[in-house]
Write a structure and sequence with these properties.
Blueprint (H helix, E strand, L loop, with lengths): L14 H7 L17 H14 L4 E5 L5 E3 L2 E2 L6 H7 L7 E6 L5 E7 L9 H4 L4 H4 L5 H8 L3 E3 L3 H7 L5 E3 L5 H6 L4 H13 L6 H23 L1 H5 L3 H15 L2 E2 L4 E4 L20 E6 L1 E2 L8 E6 L6 H18 L9 H17 L7 H7 L3 H4 L32 E4 L2 E3 L15 E3 L2 E6 L2 E4 L8 H11 L2
Parallel strand pairs: 1-7, 5-6
Antiparallel strand pairs: 1-4, 2-3, 4-5, 8-11, 9-10, 10-12, 13-16, 14-15, 16-17
Amino acid sequence: MANRRKNSLYPKLSAELSALMRTGWADTERHDLQPAEQAPYAARRRAALSERFPGERLVVPSGNLKVRSNDDTYPFRPYSGYVHLTGDQARDGALVLEPRAEGGHDAYCYQLPRDSRDDDEFWTGAHAELWTGRRRSLAESERVLGLPCRDVRTAAADLAAARGVPTRIVRGVDPALEAAVTTDAERDAALEDALSDLRLVKDAWELGELRKAVDSTVRGFTDVVGELSRAVASSERWLEGTFFRRARLEGNAVGYGTICAAGEHATIMHWTDNDGPVRQGDLLLLDAGVETRSLYTADVTRTLPISGTFTPLQRKVYDAVYEAQEAGIATVKPGAAYRDFHEAAQRHLATRLVEWGFIEGPAERAYELGLQRRFTMAGTGHMLGLDVHDCARARTEEYVDGLLEPGMCLTVEPGLYFQADDLTVPEEWRGIGVRIEDDLVVTEDGHENLSAGLPRSADEVEAWMARFAG
């Protein structure tokens, strides 16, 4: 197919050039590939999903490219449920679980095959391999994933022709595949809920990836502390770029938009413009996480005195948040209610806010009415894994109303935020924002703080900064 792009410098393709381009290419098929380390774990996850939906066809797409500007696309990030069940990250793919008459399912994966050198698409297509890089062949994908692989270009027709079997598909991921099947929204939503449920408890391989993500994140935070003096001379973006360098060096990228918030920006929960000044005497709230090449992410926050030393008022606020986090972390153990760490941290902060005269007591009444939320804003944590807010579609009774189990990974992240325009607090408090966040995995007898390599108490933070700050 000739390149049809408007305003192309080469609007026509000669037969001679086409013939030249189709010849003289080496055979690059790889026969030495081994199954991915994740493959047996992904197979067990598929088996668990199969048990939940006997006799039904399940379709889990990976997703498509999305246009950022004209012919430029966003970096592709596959649907997390697809990654969890396959270990694959290819665009335009789909996992299908086909029910067997005798029970269980046969799993196969639709993939975009390599471009053929027998036509011009491999070098003139919008997403041609010669432009964007080599893909795996179907045979290569079969070896790596441990799954039979089919040409995704036939997927919509195949699914449309396969009548008579109840089908569920994850909606909002691949419109073409969604249009090819007959389903209903309620049943499809239950499939997506189940995919989140299955990720609540991480297996050993996943926990290893989360440890890698957190360890890289710890190094990224140390990098940032070492660059503080450069940031004072530039902006928050210097520090954002510093952390991003570590994320790209050791992982895939950052797991979410880095929050690099200095001064009053620290009171904005999701400040990601990161274009403000970094001034001596202010606090820097850095909320950032490295995403591994397998797409598991860390999520850590530290609040740092840019000068290296907290002022008395900054330390007062910081200590209150630290004590709240300690109270929350202490509750994390098997059999505890998921809500326990949130309630412990929020009750502590409500007590402090009553003591300081910012909300009306007594503290228990203030907590029951949620009055502390003017200054705490959000919940105190969330599940963590392939998504920074992992398992978001899990059933409520299994997540926020559930009990903690070994293998669950979650954040504990209380904070206090005194907005710059809040007239209910003294002027010297306005513009102070503090959050401390760590990544915990529930163990058989308690918990492990994966991000314990970063200091948390005010004294520890100051000593750490004295050692590394540039």
